[in-house]
Amino acid sequence: MYLWIMFSKNSSSFHVINSDHPLGSFNKILYLVVNSLISLIPTKLPKLELFTKFRPADSVIADVRQSEVVPVSPGRFLSNAFWDSLNYDYLKELHNGSFRVIEIGCGTGRYGHRIARLADIESYEGLDLYYHSEWNQEEMKNFQFHQDTYANISKYLLHQNLIVTQSALEHFESDVLLLKQISTYATESGRPIMSIHLFPSATSLYTFLWHGIRQYGRLQLARLVRANGDKSTNYVFSLGGIAINFFHFVTITIPQVVKKQGLLSKQREIYFDSLVEALKMDSSSQSKRFPAFTALITTWNQPKIDPYFLFRQE
After folding, report:
1. At what angle are helices 74-85 and 268-283 packed, to 10 degrees?
2. Which of 70, 116, 134, 221 could serve as a FRET partner for 233 with CA atoms 20 to 30 Å apart?
3. Is 175 helix (H, G, I), strand (E, B) or coil?
């Protein structure tokens, strides 16, 4: 019953083993084996406008480090650096000077706040399956939240021109269907629309172990890009590499498995010193292989993005 989705056009996975729910020993092993095998399937990626490595500037690394009160995982740190690096002024010019954002799987809405701090957005809507008390904060005048499933996204896509997810797609059974719905909305609107999705890459299976339904190797990435449709333009960025993955494995994965405290729970400065060193090692490499996370930016109804202006310059 776990493999029925192999024949579904609505998912990038071949299974529905969801580690967000308690798994027995057999299913834990099955999850690791199936996802490992899927990551080995040779797949040709559809045409991409850009496929490159993300290298955060030193100033962005310093800012993200300063903003984190407690240590975060390497994947979270890299994701935050990616969001903070985007040149929102340039991107807003491509969207008639304003952003109306909707985030799917928004949690507390913290990435809405992150984007709003950097981009001076017109409005933000967050959609999540679960209610969060943080949604009631009075200062969020232009923020609105909806408690609903991602499968109902179509009824909320009305006027937004920036659609985002952060570490959410891997938890959705029908991730391909979601992107198809976004593509239909963007194509039919005729307006400049952009989506940005950040998700764990295939290598993260060996660092996160049991997390969501899937990780995104070439097969899953290819399915996402195809779901965006022929009228989309797609840009892919690999975040991190071997050094960051090894750092995560040693400081977080192993201690969690043996039920002991890792570096993540120890002194903040020691942790971040080691993380930044690993990040810089990966940035110095030209290889795009074995990323910790992947970012997929997709545009509709607008000129191609100039990669030089996509990220803020120091």
Report:
1. 70
2. 116
3. helix
pLDDT in tens, 207-228: 999 999 999 999 999 999 999 9
Would you say 45 and 221 are in contact if contact means Cβ atoms under 8 Å apart?
Answer: yes
Q: How remote is the C-alpha of 146 from its chain's centroid?
A: 20
**Calculated CA dihedral for residues 23, 27, 29, 32, nearest 10 degrees:** -80
Counting beta carbons within 10 angstroms of the beta carbon of residue 139, is it exposed (0 to 12), middle (13 to 18) or buried (19 or more)? exposed
Q: In 3D, which of 222, 209, 219 has the Cα closest to residue 252?
A: 209
Write the pLDDT tens digit of every residue in 181-205: 999 999 999 999 999 999 999 999 9
Q: What are 57-68's pLDDT values in tens digits? A: 999 999 999 988
CA-CA-CA-CA dihedral for 163, 165, 168, 169, to nearest 10: 60
4-310 belongs to which CATH class?
Answer: alpha beta
pTM value?
A: 0.94
Residue among 68, 70, 89 nearest 79 (CA): 68
pLDDT tens-digit series, residues 95-137: 888 899 999 999 999 999 999 999 989 999 999 999 999 898 7
Which residues on neighbouring strands pair with residue 238, listed in sequence order?
53, 294
Which two tokens mark 304? 């191609």
The pairing of beta strand 100-104 with beta strand 143-147: unpaired
CA–CA distance from 191 to each of 95, 124, 178 (Å)? 8, 18, 19
Label residues 52-83 b or e (16+ Cβ within 10 Å = b): ebbbbbeebbebbbeebeebbbbbbbbbbbbb
Sequence ranges of the domains in the chain: 4-310
